[in-house]
Amino acid sequence: MSSSAHFSESQSFQQQSNEFVSWLEANPDVKVNPKIMLADLRSTGAGRGVVARTNISEGEELFSIPRSLILAVQNSQLKTLLPQDIEALGPWLSLMLVMIYEYLQGEQSRWSPYFRVLPTRFDTLMFWSPAELAELQASAIVDKIGKQGADESILGSIAPIVKANPNLFQPVNGLSSYEGDAGTATLLELAHVMGSLIMAYAFDIEKAEEDDDEPEGSNDGYMTDDEEEQLSKGMVPLADLLNADADRNNARLYQEEEALVMKAIKPIQEGEEIFNDYGEIPRADLLRRYGYVTDNYASYDVVEFSLADICQAAGLLNSYVESQPRLQLLEEHDLLDDGYVIPRPSPTDTLQDILPIELLALLTTLCQSQEEFEQRRSKNKPPKPAIETPQAGLLYKVLQTKQSRYATSLAHDMQLLSSLTPPQADTALEGSSRRLKMALQVRIGEKEILQAIQRMLDSLASNGSLKRTANGDHDSRQSKAARY
Ligand SMILES: C[S@@+](CC[C@H](N)C(=O)[O-])C[C@H]1O[C@@H](n2cnc3c(N)ncnc32)[C@H](O)[C@@H]1O
């Protein structure tokens, strides 16, 4: 998102930054430590960022933004202008609607200088063409973009409100209304810009009331399973202009009663960039949510095996729970998933350390003889997860299937990556080359994990520690993680 192509040319870029800072400082409740400044980091592909002018001590306050300045449902006029309760739309869609409203207000919006420093074009996966997405090859991230779900939510919940209130939502791009195909397409585009800003810039502000129900079907592409809990979202000016880089996190936002306060959590040297923490996320997710990738996140990479692939490798005709008693048993014990995520192993990890217990349970169940399975089922007990010869054999097949879905080899990708990144180049790539490079980094990470798993399986087989057992109950090599 922050490649320089997404920002205006230099003079207005700097002017917009200056106007934004003046706007902030005009608010008597905003405090900005003179030791920090907003910097132009486009040459490194990072857009704007915040940098230390002089040394900063650990614990020092960097800036403080009053809650009333947060771009959020609670602070926008819109909630008083519409008959319906906007918050009932849920945190994502309500903020999306408010942002569309404020954005369309142009100079009339109190956040207009803030909007001018926010990008309107993004490198997040939502905006990649089919050809660009194909560069991610077999990465499970491709199925997690959720564009269709997002479109449906926007058309089902946002569009009717916008269309019913033309006096509040002025048409743009020379349109006379948001009706018809052109109007709908424009509205969708606008909503995706706001959705993408929320995904990459917004903070969870506070717990919503317990009775604030998320409307059904709102699990769209901007909301991931682990984020769907009811926290209201808000855009916090300046706080969201901090970039992030896994190993270099040196600041954190503290939510205080009246204000949100960014503080240094480490001593920061003059000239150093100030980084927020986006969490321990794999590069595939970094790309999906934030539209950039750095190698500092490589240690959080994962690879995912789908339930469908595992069932197929085990010789099942399908992976429908209703028609597969083995899957039913696992589901009854809350052990069934659509996909199984395996992290990048550290040099000292064993297979048992990295394979999730649910995957071991699935492999074990699928490897049981009919008799063993019936025995467990009659006692309504799931299998004891283990990695023994049958499970390792099945895992090997799954691994090979997954590897075969990536169109190119790891060696080929490494070569391609180095040809895209000449050692002397310190300027950021743009457009499609940038996206290709990021896709390569993601798929290389996943292929490295697949190779590591393969090596672990090979060494398990060659050092004789695998043993074929009559049933999955063999204790000695039971997963360390097996605790139920
Ligand atoms: C919260 S905003 C940070 C401000 C942003 N750089 C800007 O100019 O608007 C998050 C976005 O910044 C960019 N970003 C954050 N950390 C980055 C990094 N380490 N390298 C490159 N881009 C980064 C990504 O595009 C991400 O979606």
From TrEMBL:
> Which GO biological process annotations does it have?
methylation
Sequence segments annotated as region (Disordered): 208-229, 464-484
Q: Recite the UniProt keywords alphabetically.
A: Methyltransferase, S-adenosyl-L-methionine, Transferase
SET domain boundaries = 34-279
In its UniProt record, a GO molecular function of this protein is: protein-lysine N-methyltransferase activity
Is the GTP-binding keyword given for this protein? no
The protein, known as = SET domain-containing protein
